[in-house]
Amino acid sequence: MYYKKVEEYCKKNNMPIYVFEKKCGLGNGTIGGWTSSSPRIDSLEKVAAEMGITLAELLEEKEENK
What we know:
By secondary structure, the chain is an all-alpha fold. It has helices at residues 2-12, 17-24, 41-51, 55-59.
């Protein structure tokens, strides 16, 4: 869920995920790892801040995805 939102944000902003990770202060491959493991809350907070959204918005699932 989180990875998908970041992926969409990066595509919309024409930015590779590794560049976004660097802007967030995350290690290379951190966000990609979210496809198979749960992210740390501090990482999610950094990502949400960089995207200009709240943590709640990042964690929110869209109705059609349920």
